[in-house]
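Possible race condition, two jobs.
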Amino acid sequence: MGRTAVNGIELEYEVLGDQGADPLLLIMGLGEQLVTWPDEFCQLLVDAGHCVIRYDNRDAGLSTKFHEAGMPDLQALATGGDADIPYTMEDMAQDAVGLLGALSIERAHIVGASLGGMIAQTVAIHHAPQVKTLTSIMSATGNPQSPPPTPEAAALLTMPRPPQRDARIEQSVKSARLLHGDPELFDEAQVRERAAFKYDRSSYTAGVPRQLAAIIKQGNREPLLADVAVPTLVLHGTEDPLVPHGCGEMTAAAITGARLELIEGMGHSLPAHVHGELARHIIEHTGIATG
């Protein structure tokens, strides 16, 4: 683990594998921590010859918090109004690029999941020279015509998070079950163990509304994605209730030459049974860029 000053804040990060290997930056989703990228999945990428960097986004995990900024008016933003927000998606993209710079990495493969996919897309839009390849996982373009989440999944975005450890873990297990996809492959014991580990590392969740505000404020990226020229892979689960797979299809359609791979039975999560398939697609994709 390391910590570095980037873009006026501090980011907590971890480098896995040989630091001289082909760099691959992992960007995680809404309110999540770097450890939400499963160790086993990361190891598959390391074994394929990548130096894997994962980090806590601002306002999450062990990176800088914006608690003093208070809660944004999400309702005003969602209905087309204006509201003050402490940072933007462009700021979060600059965090990613700044971390690469702090690690003396000129170019990297950029892989993002959910909100992380939106940040990765924004990196490709505004910082293309730093991007070898782009991979967007279970994410979307911000187009208001995108398929909506199920009501149950949408409710997870704004539900109160209990501060008590046991209650938070129970809530995490219930949320994970809803987002998982194929219910027969849901490993409750493993999910419960991971939820406890993440809570003990950082129980902070107050950044979620501010990250949501940055998503809403940015709006539709499709017009800008049309100019993205870096090789792009879009991965999406067929059973995603939060960001339906139609969002992945729209992402692939928005970027010239993008390749779409739908993962059968996968929901809005990264369970063990999809690690191999996801890694295989990413390794094949990153292999097209040698410099």
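Job #2 (started ~2 s after job #1):
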Amino acid sequence: MFLPNVLKVAPSASAQRLQQLVEARLRPGADKVTIDRRIWDLFGERWAVMFTDLSGFSRRVADFGIIQFLQTIHESVRLLTPCFESHDGILLKVEADSLMVIFRRPQRALACAVAMQATLAEANLTLPPEEQILLCVGIGYGDMLRVGDEDVFGAEVNAASKLGEDIAKAGEILVTDQVRLALGLEAGVGFEPLAEAPSGATAAWRIIYRLPEQPAGRQG
């Protein structure tokens, strides 16, 4: 009977504990090394993190209005949620037209990203131009601080956010070098280096992948 309450308070309890430790770190004479170790012991985990974005937000709002774009956001979440679930992803955040999803393994994150692009490519075949969903994806992988089911923090999180929300174009899947190294040759895709890496990553790559109905090559 009390399980729903436990699930409800757990994330906020984690956030409260992290806040207490950060506040302790700010005190004069604080042993920051010890506090940092405690924070990583409590919250440090290794995840693949995915950020998505919908291409053309400002233009679409200007052309078709915010209500039309809100409909597009709603439809994108509806279509993509089965992809997250079937690839063992956990949707942590929905902020405007951006989603943040975490996966235990980068292989599952990449497979999910390709499945998402395929799902939307198929859906777009029957949608008018103003309702088509054009997806940008960025993926990072590494040690990060996970605070319940609320958020994750870390260099790879920042890099993935930059790749997915600012750098990727419609149909692109961009990954950090840590993702590429973890995937190795088993990924079954190609990697094209980006000219510059976002802050927090040593290098970044564009995934060369194949959609079922399209020839091999970069999508988007």
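The chain has a mean pLDDT of 87.
Logs attached separately.
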